[in-house]
Every structure is written in C-alpha cells, then in structure tokens.
Specification:
The chain is of the alpha/beta class. It has a single domain, classed as Acetylglutamate kinase-like (Carbamate kinase), CATH 3.40.1160.10. It contains 10 helices and 11 strands. The strands form 2 sheets. It has a 9-stranded mixed sheet with strand order 4-3-5-2-1-6-10-11-9, sandwiched between helices. It has a two-stranded antiparallel ribbon with strand order 7-8. Helix 8 packs antiparallel against helix 9. It is globular, with a radius of gyration of 18 Å.
Length: about 260
C-alpha cells in the first residue's frame, strides 16, 4: 500500500513508529448496509454495530480523520424496489433515508463509547443531522469528530458507492476504504467460485475491463479520473480496520 507520508528528515526509527498514525491522515470509510445486518440479513445487528464503532474509535484515537458513508441495503434498496414496481426516484429516496437510519445507529454506538461524532445529511433534515457541505465536513474532521455522511448524493440514480467516491474527493481523503464481507477483489465471486484468486493490487481500468463488482462503474470511473485510491478489505473481521491503517497487506489496492 502506498504510504501517503512525505519525508520529514527523521531517522528511520521514528518514521517506523510514526507510520502507524500517518499511513493515512484522512480516510473515507464505506460500510455496507448488508454487513450491518449481521447474520439476520436485515435490520441492524447491535453486536456488529458495536464492533464497527469500536474499530472506528480505535483508529480515531491514533489521529486518523474519518469520514464514513454507510449503505442502506439492510433496510431498503432502491434498485430492487424499482424491480418490484416502486417508482425509481421514490425507491432511491427511500434508500437514501435508509442510510440516514444506519448513520444515526452508528452515531449512537460511537457516542456510547465516548467518540465525538456528527451526522451530516445530503438532504435537509435538521435536527436529525446537519446539512452537508464539504467545508463543514472538513472543519468537523479537523476538530477530531468522526463525520458520518448520510443520504447518499441526495440525488436518485446514484448508488452509495458513487456517494462515497464523491464524498472522498470532496473531503480530500487520502484513500477510500471499502469495508466489505470479502477480504479483497477476486477474479470472480469467491463465495460462488472456489477457483477465484485474489489481487493484491489492480488498476481501475482492469476492474472496469473485467467487469469486477467492486463498486458500480460510475464510482470506479470517478475515483480513476480524480486519482482516488480505493482499498477493499474485510471489515467484518474485528481488528482489520486498524491493520489497514497500519499498512498491513490484507486487502486489495485499486490504483492507476
């Protein structure tokens, strides 16, 4: 994984010690709504929620600034709603609101363990959360808050993956970390194909050419065109988020 830290003229020993806090200064963490449901496949599993909160707090205490985008698939997915006869725009709006519910759950779990956290929403809904702006998000991050960016892009026809890419660029994150239930990107779906092999690194173009389901194509192209590295890893294994921040090779890096 690329170290985003630029040389400071320090001795190698201090650099090794510092690398833990400066691998990534600011991240955008994309969490899946489905993962939040845990074993029950829908709704919110409080054990999983608390695990996520503890992992986030652990890296926040190391000085990493954390923006979070969380999906809503555990509650409602706009696209599958459209397939069942919902109007696509209404379905996507329902999906956006589902992400807000998840954001509030995560906010509550973080507050319960003493981590400063704010929810910003892409659609005005004070007092549920403050209205999102990139400048506001960056100010809050600089003050040590975890910032949960809810409501997707605020527009229909965009997934929360695209919302994550957009927010990662807007808040000037060093990397977009995509926490999934798989430990990286494979040649095929490892849950269906036992011969699937894992990439340690892969280019954006290769992801698009192979049609790999890392994120939707709009999100991948947006990261490619703006040079935003993506790191895909298994967030459901406790301790993995900290390993990524420490520079351990446990997932797949997508880069130019």
């Amino acid at each position: 994984m690329p170290c985003m830290h630029h040389g400071t003229g320090e001795s190698p020993e201090t650099n090794i010690n510092n690398a833990i806090t400066i691998m990534f200064k600011r991240i955008l963490l994309k969490l899946s709504g489905e993962s939040l449901a845990g074993e029950s496949k829908q709704g919110i599993d409080t054990e999983r929620l608390n695990q996520y909160a503890a992992q986030v707090k652990a890296i926040a205490q190391k000085g990493v600034q954390i923006g979070i985008v969380i999906g809503g698939g555990n509650i409602f997915r706009g696209l599958s709603g459209a397939q069942q006869g919902f109007d696509r725009v209404k379905g996507d709006q329902m999906g956006m609101l589902a992400t807000v519910i998840n954001a509030l759950a995560l906010q509550s779990a973080l507050e319960a363990i003493g981590q400063p956290v704010r929810v910003l929403t892409s659609i005005r809904m004070e007092p549920v959360g403050d209205f999102y702006s990139p400048a506001k998000a960056q100010r809050l991050l600089d003050k040590g808050n975890v910032v949960i960016l809810a409501g997707g892009t605020g527009a229909p026809y965009f997934t929360t993956d695209t919302g994550s890419s957009l927010r990662a660029l807007e808040i000037k994150a060093d990397v977009m970390l995509k926490g999934t239930r798989v430990d990286g990107i494979y040649t095929a779906d490892p849950e269906k194909d036992p011969t699937a092999t894992k990439f340690t690194e892969i280019t954006y173009d290769e992801v698009i050419r192979r049609g790999l389901k890392v994120m939707d194509q709009t999100a991948t192209v947006m990261c490619k065109e703006n040079g935003m590295p993506i790191y895909v890893f298994n967030m459901d294994k406790v301790g993995n988020l900290e390993k990524v921040i420490n520079g351990e090779q446990i997932g797949t890096l997508v880069k130019p």
